[in-house]
Amino acid sequence: MNKTETLKRIISEGSSHQSLFFNHPDAIYVMDIHGNYIDANPSVERISGHTLEDLIRMNREHLCPPDSEKSRQQCIDEVLAGRSVSNSLKFYHRDGSLRQADITYVPITAEGEVVGIYGIAKDVTEIIEVERKLHETQEKYQILAEHAQDLITKCSLDGELLYVSPSVYPLLGYRPEEVTGKSFKDYCYPGDYPDPLDVSVIGNGCTMRVMHKKGHYIWMETLAKPVSGREGEDTQVVSISRDITQHKDADRRLRESRQRYKSLFEHTPAAVYSLDLEGRYSSVNRNLVQLLNIPRSELIGRSFLNNLDKSEVQNGKTYFEQVKQGKPQHYETCVVNARGRKIDVSIMNVPIIVDQELVGVYGILSDITERKDYTERIQELSKQHTLILNSVTEGIYGLDADGITMFMNPAAASMFGYEVKELVGKSSHPIMHHSRADGSYFPVEECPIHMTVMDGQRRLIKEDVFWRKDGSSFLVEYQVTPIIDQGQIQGAVVVFNDVTGEREIVRAKETAELAAQAKSEFLSMVSHEIRTPMNGIVGMTELLIGTDLSEEQREYAQIIQESGDALLNILNDILDFSKLESGKMALAYKPFSLRKMLEQVAELFKSRADEKQLKIRYRLNPSIPEFMVGDAMRIRQILVNLVSNALKFTDQGSIDVTVDIIKGRRPESSVLDFAVKDTGIGIPADKLDQLFQSFSQLHPVINRKYGGTGLGLVISKRLVEIMGGSISVESEEAEGSTFRFAVPATSVDVPQEEVARQFSHDRTRQGDKIPISILVAEDHPVNRKILTEYLEKLGYTPDVCTNGVEAIEAISQKTYNIVLMDIQMPVMDGLKATDLVHRLIPQDRIPTIIAVTGNSKREDKEACLEIGMRDFISKPVMLSELKRVLQQWGPADQPQLAPN
Questions:
Q1: Which is more confidently placed, 226 or 261?
Q2: I want to staple 176 with a disulfide (CB 3.0 to 4.6 A). Which of 76, 164, 583, 585 is the partner?
Q3: What is the pLDDT of residues 458-487, one digit of tens each?
Q4: pTM, 2 dp
Q5: What does residue 589 show for φ and ψ, rounded to 5 degrees?
């Protein structure tokens, strides 16, 4: 009998092991000594997708990759030598996927001779994938731990800190090395830390107080997870802790607020309730229970309509539907209590909105039966005084205790612009005293008239504003006197005069000035706040474009970059327009090179012109002196606006910039004449007068195609005019346009040494970069990353810090050539830090400090220069600006950086 027959006999005789063979979850199969498959359990097909018949007839190259087949054959050789062997091999699943299994080969012997082989295989494809992902996760976890704002720790089961993330410093004031190796328990408030450590508790989240280095405690919310060792036992605990001190305070305040609300709800003098969207009571206070004489248990779930007088039910439905539409309702109606007594009530219903969704209605009900009776008596008495009131020239009106107008004389109604009947029975404050002189909301609680109604004190107001029906206001002097009956305040009478006159004019002027100042401050704040995220958008996009991108990705990135540039231009236009409107645009006259300015403007637009295959040319009259005195920055701004406009509306041809000079008898009487000519779409003759109007575009279609705020030409016109010049345009539709502007300028002879000093950093140098020591002081992580990436892209490795104190410490310990200093930082700002550097650091070790800020106003730049900074970069930071700074302020032998 040959070995194969012997093997088959052994298999057939092993009936006692057949149950294990067929039901084992691992794949078990039998091969002869040549590696041919003889038998296989069902798990083989489950794991590989192949039946035994498939395995018997398949070629080896279809079952395993070459490397695995080679390893498999080596294993078979080992087994035939009588040794068991294990290996990890790859195989092809029937569906074509490549999978991996751990296989153990065991010899089958008969009479001391190997006659076959057992193969036991476990599919470990998913396990290997999980291990790979676990490894990736561990790497990501390490990065996350190093940069997370939450506190991440790893400790032993007895609480010894094995790892502490860097966030421990901003959170608790400790350096990681200060606490590593110590017990977490030592820093926790007594009783807060689980002892012994109970992961089942903190695994679901727990709060504890942790001691700050300065001695106070910080509330932290902690989540923990045990980490198992190789034997499967928990050996360590990883935890994430977050500062929830503010949340704790907010939670305490919320509880207090709820308690106050509950007390107010239950003890307020009015009847208070809430309704669901079907109009059923969901909560009621005791005053409503007493008013209706119905037990609380019976009211809950009952429709409020059941308590209305039958004649008022339809009105009640109407008002309820309106409040369900989000419109508060204040109306008077009549309810009937359980004893059948009719009660006149005033109802205020307001919508309850949660997460922008209406969930119910809140109501306040007041018994006004006595008030209505009293009002009726007052109205009866008022008839006797009507003739007197009608003959008085002062405005007179009376209010009840709720601020409702009871009467008004014709003089008052005339000054308000209403008919008397339009005001009587209405709340006076929302109609004629709702806003202050500056247009801001005037809360009724702060109104002197309302205060008199509340406290009964007579008041004389020398100056205030009332509001007319047409929305205009007028200045008044008024006296408010309480109406007191039997010691109770029943309302008030207001006597007033229109005293607008000169006082109104003065007040209007003051109000306008305050509004202008507020607008200026608001725009300055908005500018800074927008420039910080814009720095992230523009900077990261510029870095992204410099990476290896697909064509589609590059197209998307360039669209983002262009959109960011457009937003920045809009922001700059609005700020300039605001300064021009407020008259705060200051001019700075100093020598400048006109030729160099034209070169810079042409270079600025070169890439955009190349994209459109346009030529930008400039010509300078040879008779123009090398240097002129004027506001170079504003002249350049006007040129940039005009060339940008020309480039926007020109698709083919060229853009030509020419400059001539009209010389006067004296040097200071010269005039520079600029012309920017394009071959673009031109401007219709009937639209030319709209060009220099604020926020004006010639046509919606053009606006949608080319974009813009419509402020560029307005700003240019204003700048030209404050410099004492003029601007004009010549254009024909489809034939192009020529914009001209002329500004006074003074020719000046600048000494050669002054030229050398001003342009000493414009030299072109060759050779390799020399090391420049650079420090970046920036608290915002995105801005810090952009500056770091830019510098690394240019070949430098900067040091970084996050506030002025750290910057001073770094400068005192190391010599830096350049410091990029953010102006607004926590702990200590950039201006204070720069001042202290100049005071504390030896003169020969003071680096060149460059301001980096979201503020772009000239006065901000001047403040930086006055404190000792050498230059100024506005956010968003452009790579070209950073190159300019390094080129200008780096060491004298620093080579020229390549342009963008």
A1: 226
A2: 164
A3: 999 988 999 999 888 889 999 999 999 888
A4: 0.37
A5: -95, 130
Outline where DSSP puts E strands in 642-755: 654-662, 670-678, 726-732, 736-747
Confidence band for 701, pLDDT divided at 50, 70 and 90: very low
Return the residue matching tokens 């050539």.
817
Edge-to-edge strand ranges of the sheet holding 848-853: 799-801, 774-777, 818-822, 848-853, 871-874
Q: Please write down the long-range contacts of 828-835, taking CB distance under 8 Å and 24 or more positions apart.
A: 828/803, 828/804, 829/804, 830/777, 830/804, 831/863, 831/864, 831/867, 832/804, 833/777, 833/803, 833/804, 833/805, 833/807, 833/808, 834/864, 834/867, 834/868, 834/869, 835/867, 835/868
When pLDDT is cut at 50, 70 and 90, the band that residue 672 belongs to is very high
The DSSP line for 340-372 is --EEEEEEEEEEEEETTEEEEEEEEEEE-HHHH
Question: What's phi and psi for 520, nearest 5 deg?
Answer: -65, -45
Residue 470, SS3 per DSSP? coil
620 Cα distance to chain centroid: 47
Rounded Cα distance between 203 and 222, Å, is 8
Give the list of residues 6+ apart from residue 518 with CB closer than 8 angstroms, or none. Answer: none
Sign of the C-alpha dihedral computed for residues 883, 887, 888 and 889 taken in this order = positive
Rounded to whole angstroms, how far apart are CA atoms 265 and 649? 66
438, 518 Cβ separation under 8 angstroms: no
Which residue, chain included where needed, has tokens 């010389």? Answer: 663
Q: Which residue has the tokens 């010549």?
A: 730
Q: What percent of the chain has pLDDT over 90?
A: 32
Q: Are 408 and 420 in contact (CB under 8 A)?
A: yes
Burial tier of 226 (Cβ tally within 10 Å: 0-12, 13-18, 19+)? middle
Q: Rounded CA gap, 407 and 389, in Å?
A: 10
DSSP 652: S
Q: pLDDT band at 191, cuts 50/70/90?
A: confident
Q: Is the pLDDT of residue 227 over 80?
A: no
Could you give the CA distance from residue 573 to residue 627 in angstroms, rounded to a whole number?
A: 29
Alpha helices in 361-445 (DSSP H): 369-384, 386-391, 410-416, 420-423, 429-432
pLDDT category, 504, cuts 50, 70, 90?
low
- Provide the 10 A C-beta neighbour count for residue 470: 7
Model pLDDT for residues 763-772, shown as the tens digit of each residue? 733 334 567 8
The residue among 425, 417, 373, 422 whose CA lies nearest residue 398 is 425
Q: How far is CA 493 from CA 134, 139, 328, 396, 397, in A?
A: 80, 77, 28, 7, 6
User: 388: number of CA atoms within 13 Å, CB side?
Assistant: 8
450/442 Cα distance (integer angstroms) = 12
* Percent of the residues in the chain that have a pLDDT greater than 70, as a whole number: 83
Cis peptide before 196 (omega within 30 of 0): yes
List of residues 6+ apart from 236 with CB closer than 8 A: 154, 155, 156, 157, 162, 226, 227
Query: What's the start-to-end Cα distance of the chain, in Å?
Result: 85
Mean pLDDT of 654-668: 84
The phi and psi torsions of 823 (rounded to 5 degrees) equal -80, -45
829-886 pLDDT tens trace: 999 999 999 999 998 899 999 999 876 666 777 888 889 999 988 888 888 888 888 9
Summarize pLDDT for 557-575 with one digit per residue, the tens.
877 877 776 676 666 666 6
In which band, very low, low, confident or very high, does the pLDDT at 382 lie, cut at 50, 70 and 90?
low
Q: pLDDT tens for residues 28-41? A: 889 888 888 888 89
How far apart CA 412 and CA 431 sit, in angstroms, is 13
What is the rounded CA–CA span in Å between residue 687 and residue 182?
78
Answer whether 149's CB lies under 8 Å from 167's CB.
Answer: yes
